[in-house]
C-alpha cells in the first residue's frame, strides 16, 4: 500500500491533479530539493503539462539540453537541468534571479550549457531561448558558440532593434528584435528555419562543420532569459507554443 503525505492528501481532497509524467515528476523533485521547499501545485502542473505537451507534439526527443530559467524558487533550482547536463554558473547570484522573469545577465556573468556545439549533427540541430523583459544592450549574446567562426551558432542582439542568427556558418542573418521566443532549427544543408515574434521564416545559408566548443548563454550580456533549449532539429512553432504556455502559466501561478 502506498502511503500519501499530508500535502498530497490535501491536494487530492481539494480535487487538484498531480504531476503524472515520470520525467516531469523527477525534474520537479530535483528542483524542490535544490530550492529546499515545494513549488505551488499550479507551478508543478504547468511543468507537467509542458513536458507532456512536448511529448505529445513529438519534439521532446529532440531536446538534448534545457533549463527552465524561471518557476523555481531559487537560482539554484532554476539551474537544475530539465534535460541533459547541468549547466555551469559563472558569477550569477541570487539577486540576478526572479521566478517570473528569469535570469538577468550583466557584465562578467555567463552560463555554460556544458553541451558542445558539435554534439548535434551539422544538418540536424536547434537552439532556442525565451527572451524576457530585458532585450539587453547592443551585442548581447543570448546563446553562442564560435562567434563569427565557420560552423558557429549564435542568437544575438545587433545594433538597433535587430536580432541576428548564425547556424553552422560564419555568416549572420538579421530580423526585427522582439522579446519572447527566439529560435532556429536546421534540417537541411542549404537553409535553416528561424522563429521570432511568432513567425517562422527560412534563412538560405549553407552549413559548415560545426564549431567545436560548448554553447554559452549570456556571455557577459545584460539580457534576460527564462528558458533555453539545445538539441536536434524540431518544429519551432510547436516549441514556441509550449514555452509560451509555460511562461504564462508561471505568471498566473506564482504570487
Structural overview:
The chain has 255 residues and is α+β, with helices and mostly antiparallel strands. The chain has a single domain (19-253), classed as Jelly Rolls, CATH 2.60.120. The protein is 24% helix and 33% strand. It has five helices and 15 strands. The chain has helices at residues 6-13, 22-35, 41-57, 75-78, 236-253; strands at residues 63-68, 88-90, 97-98, 102-104, 110-116, 125-131, 141-145, 152-158, 162-169, 173-176, 180-186, 191-196, 199-204, 214-218, 224-231. The strands form two sheets. Strands 1, 3, 4, 6, 11, 12, 13 and 15 form an eight-stranded antiparallel sheet that branches. It starts with 5 loop residues before the first helix and ends with a helix. The model is unreliable at 1-15 (pLDDT under 50).
Which features characterize this protein?
255 residues, alpha+beta, Jelly Rolls, 8-stranded antiparallel beta sheet, 7-stranded antiparallel beta sheet, 5 helices, 15 strands, disordered N terminus
The total tally of domains equals 1
Q: What is the annotated CATH architecture? A: Sandwich
| Topology order in helix (H) and strand (E) letters | HHHEHEEEEEEEEEEEEEEH
Radius of gyration: 18 Å
CATH T-level topology:
Jelly Rolls
Structural class call reads alpha+beta
Shape, principal axes of CA atoms? globular
Termini Cα gap: 36 Å
In DSSP terms (H or I, runs of 4 or more residues), the helix count works out at: 5
Number of strands: 15
Low-confidence stretches: 1-15
Note the main sheet.
8 strands, antiparallel
Could you tell me the strand content as a percent range? 25-35%
CATH class: Mainly Beta
Helix content: 10-25%
Amino acid at each position: 500500500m502506498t502511503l500519501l503525505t499530508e500535502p498530497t492528501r490535501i491536494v487530492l481532497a481539494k480535487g487538484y491533479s498531480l504531476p503524472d509524467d515520470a520525467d516531469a515528476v523527477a525534474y520537479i523533485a530535483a528542483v524542490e530539493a535544490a530550492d529546499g521547499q515545494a513549488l505551488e501545485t499550479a507551478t508543478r502542473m504547468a511543468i507537467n503539462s509542458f513536458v507532456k505537451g512536448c511529448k505529445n507534439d513529438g519534439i521532446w526527443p529532440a531536446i538534448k539540453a534545457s533549463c527552465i530559467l524561471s518557476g523555481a524558487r531559487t537560482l539554484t533550482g532554476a539551474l537544475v537541468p530539465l534535460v541533459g547536463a547541468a549547466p555551469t554558473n559563472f558569477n550569477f547570484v541570487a539577486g540576478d534571479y526572479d521566478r517570473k522573469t528569469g535570469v538577468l545577465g550583466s557584465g562578467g556573468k555567463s552560463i555554460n550549457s556544458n553541451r558542445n556545439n558539435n554534439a548535434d549533427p551539422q544538418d540536424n540541430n536547434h537552439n532556442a531561448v525565451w527572451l524576457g523583459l530585458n532585450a539587453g544592450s547592443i551585442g548581447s549574446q543570448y546563446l553562442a558558440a564560435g562567434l563569427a567562426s565557420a560552423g558557429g551558432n549564435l542568437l544575438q542582439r545587433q545594433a538597433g532593434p535587430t536580432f541576428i542568427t548564425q547556424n553552422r556558418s560564419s555568416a549572420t542573418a538579421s530580423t526585427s528584435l522582439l522579446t519572447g521566443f527566439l529560435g532556429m532549427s536546421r534540417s537541411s544543408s542549404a537553409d535553416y528555419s528561424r522563429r521570432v515574434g511568432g513567425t517562422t521564416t527560412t534563412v538560405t545559408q549553407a552549413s559548415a562543420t560545426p564549431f567545436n566548443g560548448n554553447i554559452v548563454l549570456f556571455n557577459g550580456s545584460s539580457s534576460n532569459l527564462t528558458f533555453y533549449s539545445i538539441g536536434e532539429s524540431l518544429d519551432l512553432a510547436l516549441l514556441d507554443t509550449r514555452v509560451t504556455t509555460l511562461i504564462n502559466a508561471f505568471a498566473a501561478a506564482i504570487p
